[in-house]
C-alpha cells in the first residue's frame, strides 16, 4: 500500500452523477427560474464546475440571487433524493482491497453527507471512515484545506500518507494547500477523463 489514506471526491470520481442527475436537475431548475437563459450543454456544465466552480457559475454567470440560491439548494436536494448514481466499474474492487489491507477511506465532496452514505450503501461499497461534504460551513468546504487537516489530525498521518483523487479544480486547489502541512508531500491525482478512474487508480496502489 503506497498511501495509507485514500481521499476521494464523490461526484464523477466515484459515481457517474453529473450527467445522470446533477445536470438534468440544473436544466429543470433553469427552465423554472430562467426560462430565457442560455441553453447549456453537458460539456458546458462540466467546464463551469471545473472552473470557476459551481457557486461562482451560479452567481456570476447565471445571476442567481441569494434567495434563488437557497431555492436551488432545496430544488437540488429534492431532485437528488430518489435518484442513486451508479459507481464506476472497478471502484468497488479497489476500495475493498484498500480497506482489506488496513487503509483509511475518506471522502471530501461538494455533495451532502447523507447522499454520499446512501450512494456507497446502494452501490455495495465499503463505507468511508470519514466524510466531509457540503454540510460544512462554506469556509471549510473545498477548496479550503480544512478537511485534509482534520483527516491528518484524526488519523495521525503525515501528508505523505494521503492520496487525494478528484476530477475538478477545487479538489486540486485543496490539495495544493499542502504547503501548509508538515510531514511530507501530499499525493495529488486528477481523475481525468470520466469513467476511467478505476484503471488509473490501480496504477497507484
List keywords for this structure.
single chain, 205 residues, alpha/beta, two-stranded antiparallel ribbon, 9 helices, 7 strands, globular, disordered C terminus
What does this protein look like?
With 205 residues, the chain is an alpha/beta fold. 45% of the residues lie in helices and 12% in strands. The chain has helices at residues 18-33, 42-50, 54-62, 66-80, 91-100, 113-122, 146-155, 169-176, 197-202; strands at residues 5-8, 15-16, 86-87, 104-108, 130-132, 162-166, 187-190. The strands form two sheets. The protein has a five-stranded parallel sheet, sandwiched between helices. The protein has a two-stranded antiparallel ribbon with strand order 2-3. Strand 4 (104-108), helix 6 (113-122) and strand 5 (130-132) form a beta-alpha-beta unit. Helix 1 (18-33) crosses helix 4. The chain is globular, with a radius of gyration of 17 Å. The N and C termini lie close together (6 Å). The model is unreliable at 179-186, 188-193 and 195-205 (pLDDT under 50).
Q: How many angstroms does the end-to-end distance come to?
A: 6 Å
Please state roughly what percent of the residues sit in beta strands, choosing from under 5%, 5-15%, 15-25%, 25-35%, 35-45% or over 45%: 5-15%
Portion of residues within helices? 40-55%
Radius of gyration from CA coordinates: 17 Å
Amino acid at each position: 500500500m503506497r498511501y495509507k489514506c485514500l481521499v476521494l471526491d464523490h461526484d464523477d470520481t466515484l459515481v457517474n452523477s453529473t450527467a445522470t442527475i446533477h445536470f438534468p436537475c440544473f436544466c429543470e431548475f433553469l427552465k423554472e427560474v430562467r426560462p430565457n437563459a442560455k441553453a447549456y450543454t453537458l460539456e458546458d456544465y462540466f467546464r463551469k464546475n471545473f472552473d470557476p466552480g459551481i457557486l461562482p457559475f451560479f452567481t456570476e454567470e447565471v445571476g442567481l440571487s441569494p434567495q434563488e440560491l437557497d431555492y436551488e439548494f432545496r430544488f437540488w436536494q429534492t431532485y437528488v433524493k430518489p435518484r442513486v448514481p451508479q459507481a464506476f466499474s472497478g471502484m468497488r474492487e479497489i476500495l475493498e482491497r484498500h480497506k482489506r489491507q488496513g487503509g483509511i477511506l475518506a471522502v471530501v465532496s461538494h455533495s451532502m453527507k447523507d447522499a454520499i452514505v446512501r450512494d456507497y450503501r446502494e452501490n455495495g461499497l465499503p463505507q468511508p471512515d470519514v466524510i466531509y461534504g457540503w454540510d460544512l460551513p462554506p469556509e471549510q468546504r473545498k477548496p479550503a484545506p480544512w478537511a485534509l487537516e482534520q483527516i491528518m489530525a484524526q488519523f495521525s498521518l503525515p501528508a505523505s500518507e494521503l492520496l487525494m483523487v478528484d476530477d475538478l479544480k477545487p479538489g486540486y486547489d485543496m490539495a495544493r494547500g499542502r504547503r501548509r502541512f508538515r510531514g511530507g508531500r501530499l499525493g495529488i491525482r486528477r481523475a481525468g477523463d470520466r469513467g476511467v478512474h478505476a484503471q488509473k487508480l490501480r496504477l497507484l496502489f
